[in-house]
Design a protein that fits this description.
Blueprint lengths: L10 E5 L2 E6 L2 E6 L12 E6 L2 E6 L2 E6 L12 E5 L2 E6 L2 E6 L10 E5 L5 E6 L2 E6 L4 E6 L11 E2 L4 E5 L3 E3 L4 E3 L3 E13 L7 E9 L2 E2 L5 E5 L7 E11 L4 E10 L4 E3 L4 E7 L1
Antiparallel strand pairs: 1-2, 2-3, 4-5, 5-6, 7-8, 8-9, 10-11, 11-12, 13-15, 13-25, 14-23, 16-17, 17-23, 18-22, 18-24, 18-25, 19-20, 19-21, 19-23
Length: about 270
Amino acid sequence: DLDSTNELIDSIRYIGDSLIVWEQDQRLATYLPQEDTTNELIDSVVLTALDSLIIYEADTSFSVYLEDLDSTNELIDSIRYIGDSLIVWEQDQRLATYLPQEDTANELIDSIAYPRTDTVTVYEGTNTVAFHSANTMGEIFDVAGGQVIGATFTDVTLATSGIVDAGYTAAANNITVTKAGRYRITYRVTLEFDATSNNRSEAEHQLTVNGTAVPGTLSATYHRNRGINSNTATVVRVVNLAAGAIVRVQSRQSAGTSVLQTKANGSSLTVERQ
């Protein structure tokens, strides 16, 4: 139990082999799980019941039970690490150091670097461990408009770069991811008639990865007449991407005889690591 009323845990974050537990918007404790002989990083954490956790580390699982730190259960004031040990201070009292069953090597942590890319790097002896710690993104969009959309699928021009974090490369009509992982991809395409068109028409749009259409990303826009001719399609999908994957948006005119073109500031592509 974290306190006398035993509210359920709201969320758990792990950084390397450290756990941060939040309960009712309060940071209550940080715990390190049991180690094994090879000291792998945590693969996943599962909340099984109330305040009990199961830690999965490589091919091994450990049970962790959260306990009161003292009878009054004040909030933690600070946590310090010395080597691989955590020292918890609560109202100017040193209450606990948690590090059960360390491995035989157990080098001390030398330093931690957070360069605000998407990784935290831990330096331990001669070893360096980097792991994912924050969402990153790459974004491109269209400012100029005026690209005419033909009868076959063509890459939509998105020549202006927005936020492009490390791990992404932005070009005029695509974003390349340099790290494998799970990504949330959002595209938006806005089309309109050119100045002379006035016939009902339709367009289709899709997302591609390495030139292949991504299932579940097809969308369409309907353009009625000169008075009501602008329309926008927006699609969001979460997909697994390999390192070097190239993401594009494509459009084509699927019906009608009007000339359809992109509208200024109406189209974009965003790729976000999850």
